[in-house]
């Protein structure tokens, strides 16, 4: 490995919001694949991780993102389900995230899981922006595929613009009621103090260039130091899901947020009763732009560095728990690592 020992990892972005407000569609638009069509029913039952490299972000954002202005490698998106019964998946996603997108249907406005997501973000102190989604459903909307918001805004009639503005200001008002000072993103100077609202359509791609630009800018500006990791160090992550996998037995879908995990590493994983000490049998990684739950797209890899979503196959994982810590032992004292896992 010829990389600098400290390097900048990919920020982890949780996508949160009320059921059907368009979280999966938005990611789907970004990655340009049809994960949504493979979903059972309308509910997202799993958390998936999607790595979007900087050059793809730059392609989508067009003139808005010059890759030379950024040294973060891209963004790692975690989709979460909006259905009310999946509170733990949402909290887990929120707790893991460096930054978040709260998706709000611009016509439907604030709903119970919007408020719940805000609570999660408030408690975990995760910086976020609001994607005011489905702008194409404003009656009379004149769609301009994949266009930046400013261009498409100018192409609307006064009536349509007023209608959209009304809905956007209602969302800004709701955020204010919840104690978040917010404004349309192009008016926000300091994204640490104010929440930027980005009008988008996951259907037409309008505003998606803006959304990615704001996310990259926010990460670069405010998270750069937090993204500095010892990339070759022992891996640290969190279990998103425990799953049986044909040919591999029990596996843990893990988001790695620090260091590296190798296919010959010893691991300590949080278990239902006590920490599990085990050896990696296989590391299964989604290809770039693929989704962790689309099994056919896995490839066996020798090592993975943060941040990534990976499936770890290892013996003894039957007692592993979603939300539990995963730590690589490598040349450290096993008892110390066990103690760290117990303390989390
Ligand atoms: P859960 O995972 O169940 O919480 O829902 P979700 O937030 O992931 O919503 P999803 O992306 O599944 O979208 C719900 C429905 O809204 C689908 O029928 C989408 O096609 C539709 N939809 C999403 N975004 C847009 C949009 O920008 N415009 C329009 N017109 N429809 C949209
Ligand atoms: Mg979904």
From TrEMBL:
Tr-type G domain sequence ranges: 8-223
Binding, GTP: 17-24, 79-83, 133-136
Domain of life: Archaea
GO molecular function, one term: GTP binding
Keywords, ordered alphabetically: GTP-binding, Initiation factor, Nucleotide-binding, Protein biosynthesis
Keyword Nucleotide-binding included in the entry's annotation: yes
GO cellular component: cytoplasm
Function recorded in the entry: Function in general translation initiation by promoting the binding of the formylmethionine-tRNA to ribosomes. Seems to function along with eIF-2.
Protein family membership: Belongs to the TRAFAC class translation factor GTPase superfamily. Classic translation factor GTPase family. IF-2 subfamily.
Record protein name field: Probable translation initiation factor IF-2
Organism of origin: Natrinema versiforme JCM 10478
Lineage: Archaea, Methanobacteriati, Methanobacteriota, Stenosarchaea group, Halobacteria
Gene from which this protein is expressed: infB
Full-length numbering of the shown residues: 5 to 348 of 599
